[in-house]
Amino acid sequence: MRLCLLLSAAILTGGFTGSSCQREDRSLSSLLGKDLYEKSFPHHHAIYTYEALIKAAASYPSFAGEGDPTQRKRELAAFFAHIGHETTNGGGPVAEEGPSSKTSEASYAWGLYYTEEQACLDGHCTQYNTGGNSPYKPAPGKSYYGRGPLQLTYAYNYGLAGEELGLPLLAKPELVSQDGAIAFRTALWFWMKSQKPKPSCHDVVCGNWKPSAEDIRLRRKPGFGMTINIINGGVECNTNAGEVKDERQDRIGFYKHMAALLQVTVGEDCDCADMAPYPNGE
Q1: Which of 25, 150, 183, 194 lies in the 20 to 30 Å Cα band around 234?
Q2: 3-state class (DSSP) for residue 198
């Protein structure tokens, strides 16, 4: 009864209004329209549709949904940067020369071009066909090379993602390169999932992750650079070696490009050149 009286009093005195009671729309579609998606990935593969991304993102309402508009846009720009880098053909007409052929901003338009790891299509990448110490063992005749926007690899990752997403990815890894919604779901699964001691990319970009004293000693700081460390730090971080540096700079270039399209600043600590990676297996 007391609650009803309070509600009635609030309504009578104007304490509640229609606008204040409306819940803010923080869905991905409220931040990203189809036109902007197509502008971000004008040469995307047929499975990577705007509708597939929006459908996949519905399972992760916190993705690009936390914080103020600047924070939300930065997370989307960071995610787009990584999936663009992982799936680019290297720059359209000059793709045969490889990613290092990029000479202009226009080259960042070629993300989401590939659905599979091109170097492994002939079946020789058997190093990925392992479950490690996990319960997820490879299925006979199946290969677990990179597929999807974030290039899901290794049988144990397909197995864990499949279990948590309710999908038969160990038995049918090809689903990640054939179904757009599934492809984006695996990428968002990785992006949103912390795998200790690594935080999730989402928590890093949104400010939910606070570096420990050990992280600070190892120069791990919040920012886009830390997302590089999470995704491929063992190869790309704490080094300035030729081709490796180029790969890292390509991610950063994609990030700046996507941020410009979303009309948001990139923030600090975009690089991981002096950031210690996590040990192998972590």
Answers
A1: 183
A2: strand
Please write the tens of the pLDDT for every residue from 178-202. 999 999 999 999 999 999 999 999 9
247 is catalytic: no
Describe the chain by its helix, strand, coil percentages, rounded to 5: 55, 0, 45
Domains of the chain and any CATH numbers: 26-115+194-282 (1.10.530.10), 117-177 (3.30.20.10)
The yes-or-no verdict on residue 120 having pLDDT over 80 is yes
Q: Tell me the three state secondary structure of residue 47.
A: coil
70, 206 contact by CB (below 8 A): no
pTM of the model: 0.88
**How far does CA 153 lie from the centroid of its chain?**
14
φ, ψ for residue 140, nearest 5 deg: -55, 130
133: which residues sit within 8 A by CB, 6+ positions away? none
Alpha helical stretches, state H, 132-223: 155-165, 180-192, 201-206, 213-217
Q: Which of 75, 86, 116, 236 is catalytic?
A: 86
3-state class of 195 per DSSP? strand
